[in-house]
Amino acid sequence: MRLKLLFFPLMLIASISVFISFVWPEVEAVRTLSAESKNGLEDLNLIKEKKDNIRGLDQDLGKNSDKEELVNSYFPKVRNEERIIDAIYYLAANSSVSLANISIAGDPLKGEDEVDGPKSVFSSQSPQAGELPGAADQRTLPSSARSVDVEIFVAGTYENIKTFLSAVNSMEMMNDVTGVDISSQSAGEEGESSGFLSAQVKAKFYYMRNTRADNNYKLAVLDSSEFDFSQVEKVKAFISQGIPKLEVGEKGMKNPFFAL
């Protein structure tokens, strides 16, 4: 009897040791596999849901091809100086202004990865002389947005120049008119006004390169089977409007040449 009482604690300790050493790790492994299986099942269901959403997005895009074309036009994927120049020539001719020169900053021969682009549309610096204040803190663009700086020199009457600026501001291409410097043209030796004005227009034209999704099925755009085209409707409305009426001598207005 005494021997039994002596060996019982030893047997109990040995059993516990065996359980801890061999059985418990297996229990933990089973629990881990069960949790992984549950997470895998949740991921599988999520992937199936995203797959259905992708199918719905494709169908929704097919029904709204006109809006897709507008987005691709308003936010071009590449830097395209030729398109900018052709559009400005066309708008100048339609506005009855003389286009004296177009200057585009940057090297058009650089690769897309070599062209530096802003993290936001405007810098925090104070506007320089001739620049239009008020737009710098109104909105920002995605980090993939890049800009092309353009200077346009035109001559014409006040109304024609205003028409030209309104047309540039409402182009189907993302842009901001950041500065306008207008001076009068003199005629004759006595320096009398000719009735024509010269305008130096500074503008930024934006393009936005494709971004990589990195095969991430958790992208926010895949949470729905339909696209949100509300911003596209705002773009369409913006393009169709002109510059707000400006009163002579009026001060304190926000920059009227300001895109969405």
Describe this structure in words.
It is a single chain. With 260 residues, the chain is an alpha+beta fold. It has a domain at 78-210: Alpha-Beta Plaits (2-Layer Sandwich), CATH 3.30.70. Helices cover 42% and strands 19% of the residues. It has 5 helices and 4 strands; from the N terminus they run αααββαββα. The chain has a 4-stranded antiparallel sheet. Helix 2 (65-74) crosses helix 5. The longest helix is centred in the N-terminal third of the chain and has 62 residues, at 2-63. The chain is elongated, with a radius of gyration of 33 Å. The chain starts with a helix and ends in a 20-residue tail after the last helix.
CATH architectural designation of the domain at 78-210: 2-Layer Sandwich
Order of adjacent strands in the largest pleated sheet? 1-2-4-3
Number of helices: 5
Over the alpha carbons, how many angstroms does the gyration radius reach?
33 Å
Biggest sheet, in brief? 4 strands, antiparallel
Query: The CATH topology of the domain at 78-210, please?
Result: Alpha-Beta Plaits
Shape: elongated
Unreliably modeled segments: 108-130, 132-139
Oligomer classification: single chain
Q: Which percent bin holds the helix content?
A: 40-55%
Mean pLDDT: 74
Topology order in helix (H) and strand (E) letters: HHHEEHEEH
Give a count of the beta strands, DSSP E runs of length 2 or more. Answer: 4
Distance between the termini: 93 Å
Question: What is the CATH C-level name of the domain at 78-210?
Answer: Alpha Beta
- The fraction of residues in strands falls at 15-25%
Look at the helices and sheets and give the structural class.
Answer: alpha+beta
CATH superfamily of the domain at 78-210: Ribosomal protein S6/Translation elongation factor EF1B
